[in-house]
Design a protein that fits this description.
Blueprint (H helix, E strand, L loop, with lengths): L3 E4 L6 H11 L8 E4 L8 H22 L5 E5 L35 H13 L5 E7 L2 E2 L10 H16 L4 E3 L4 H4 L2 E2 L2 E2 H13 L1 H4 L3 E5 L5 E2 H9 L5 E3 L8 H7 L1 H11 L4 H4 L3 H10 L9 H5 L8 H14 L5
Parallel strand pairs: 1-2, 2-3, 3-4, 4-9, 5-8, 6-11
Antiparallel strand pairs: 7-10
Helix pairs in contact: 1-2, 2-3, 4-12, 8-14
Amino acid sequence: MSHALILGVSGISVPEVVRLLKEKISDVSTVSHVFFTAYIATDDFESLRKVNTSLLETAIRSIEEVSKDLKVVILQTGGKGYGLEFPKEVNIAPPLREDMPRIPQPYQDKIFYYTQYDLLTELSKGKSWTFTEIRPDGIVGFVPGSNAMNMAQGIALYLSLYKEVNGVGATVPFPGFEHGYNSTHSDTFQDVLARMEIFAATNPQKCGNGGIFNIADGDTVTWAQVWPKICTYFDLIGRGPKPDSQPMEAFVKENAKAWGAMVEKHGLDPSGMKFQNWAHVHFMLVQFDFDRQYDLSRAREVGFMESIDTAQGYFTAWDRMKAAKIFP
């Protein structure tokens, strides 16, 4: 019988994590599949690499200590593995494939996904467990708590406030630039991502031994295709960017009183706006202004065929946010 554990630990010592696992999970000794999605943000690349690699090592050594049934570890990473943080410094040549070499130095040392992968390679040697790396592009989804990488929530907060300020049927320009509006990318809806990770975890003979798999909604898209569609969810008309478009965060700050009134009127959870990471949303919509679409051939070759229309992924995530009172 398989027993999955989705793991996020805070960087404390192995003995302390072992104690907490035994205390919080009565049958932790039967854990067979681990999904590692934890992340700690720091101020520089060196500490980011050290902290997050140590985080993973603590997690895996702790699981090995409490469970002798470990079979599979799923490591969730992302587009940083293709150097997307450094589009001016490295050659990004889409469609991005898993067999592409690591980006060159000195930028290679700034990617903690590489050291996490190498760590799992070493830790799994001679062991009864194996691992798989899953690489989503920008994740579209909802989580009950705050998430620093929540692009869909930021867009929803912005568009719901835009509707409140400008009215139903207002035209909302894309808050970026023309070349970014037309650049290609591959969003990843959270349910598709989760099912790919479950597929990999339950098919180690196809996906294990350090296999790396891209995952995305399916078809390559541009914001020119997606933006007008997703704006309809808020009864707005989405159009291309304007040279003088106001940044999303600036618009939100300028209309803070209107948002406060919305919170009161609709009984919204104020933490969604309070903890929204606008820098990440700006990064994804404005600064990621180059082609970066994924090649999904490897996932298809092992039998994972699921896909979804990208706009529908946003709609489903937003339905969940509305139910949680993130926006009206």
